[in-house]
Each structure stands twice: as C-alpha cells, then as structure tokens.
Amino acid sequence: MAVIVTSDFRGGARLEVDGEPYFIVEFQHVKPGKGGAFVRTKLKNMKTGLVIERTFRSGEKFDVPDVEEKTMQFLYAQGEDYYFMDNESYEQITLTKKDLGDRILFLKEQMPVNILFYKEKPITIDLPTFVDLTIVETDPARKGDTASGGSKPAKVETGATVKVPFHLQEGDVIKVDTRTSEYIERVRSGS
Predict the structure, then answer these.
(1) What's a Gene Ontology MF term here (predicted)?
(2) Backbone angles phi, psi at 32, to 5 degrees
(3) How far apart are CA 38 and CA 56, in angstroms?
C-alpha cells in the first residue's frame, strides 16, 4: 500500500486516519522555537463529508486510502435510493440519500458524476463544478428591478433554492456552482 509523509502534504492529498479515508482541505507546517516541528491540518472525511482538525508530528506516515473514481450516469431516485450506471459495462450501483448528503440538491437525471469507491465499495459522488438548471419557481420580475442590485430566492428543477438576480424568471436556465450553491450566470432565457 502507498504511504504519504507529512512533508508530502498538499491540498487535496488523500490519507487514511484511524481507518477512515480523508483528503486535506488545509495544512500548515509549524516549526516552533522549542520542541519538534508539526503539521496542523483540516481534513474532510470522504465518506461522511465531516471536517476535522488534527495535528501530526513532522515525519509521521499514513497509508494512502484505496480510493478509486469511476464516471457513472445518474439514472433516477426512488425513495431514499439513488441509482447510477456505468455507461461502458452497464453495471448499476445504488447509493442512499445519507451517502450523498447535500449533493442531491444539484443532481439531475442523466448527469455524469464521479463515484468514489473506497475498498471497492461506493461511498459518495463528486458533482461537476457547474450545472445548468431551470428555474421552476420564483417571484415574478417587477418593473424597476435591476439586473445588478439585490437578489431573490429561486427554486430550480432539482428542488434546491438559489439566490438569483431580480430580473430572472421561471423557465430561465441558470449556471450554478455546486460547491457554493451560488448563481453564476443566466445560460438561456425561458421566455
């Protein structure tokens, strides 16, 4: 199994801590005047999405988790279960609402996503950074509303609510950043 040392830490690097797969969100090498050097980190659990802070001694070694990524297509959701298919082998897998967490807010049928497998078991998905979604419900645009000032909530086809400029209306297609849930731009007018 591959090993990572604290001197190899980089943002996004993967490591196994206490038998769980994590990736590094932030890290800082610290060399105090007294005592040994250490590394302060923020780690995100790849299975649960929980972020923890940990400090490690300089030179400490960790196993690199057995994580594989595979691009699959989201087929449909039924109750708490979400079904995905490998377009090459037609193999299907199921993940639960709990496995996916907030990622379901931007998941559209037929969307390609990266499924993360840990020890050959699917654990979660990585969405594309940007998705195009249709506004299905929002307050109508009013005369005097400007494109540059303020925002209003808009419900999109996946059920998520996104803050959008006042001039947008139902039927408009918008680009949303899946990492921050922020409106980026209008892709196409619905009228």
Answers:
(1) translation elongation factor activity
(2) -70, 165
(3) 6
- Looking at domain 67-126, what is its CATH homologous superfamily? Nucleic acid-binding proteins (2.40.50.140)
Please count the other Cβ atoms lying within 10 Å of the Cβ belonging to residue 125: 22
Residue 59 C-beta-side C-alpha neighbours within 13 Å: 3
- Which residue, among 94, 97, 86, has the nearest Cα to 121 in the 3D structure? 94
- Judge whether 164 and 183 are in contact, CB under 8 Å: yes
DSSP 24: E
CA-nearest of 98, 126, 120, 110 to 73 is: 110
Q: How far apart are the first and last CA of the chain?
A: 56
Q: What digits encode the pLDDT tens for the residues 107-165?
A: 999 999 999 898 888 988 888 889 999 999 988 866 655 555 678 999 999 989 999 99
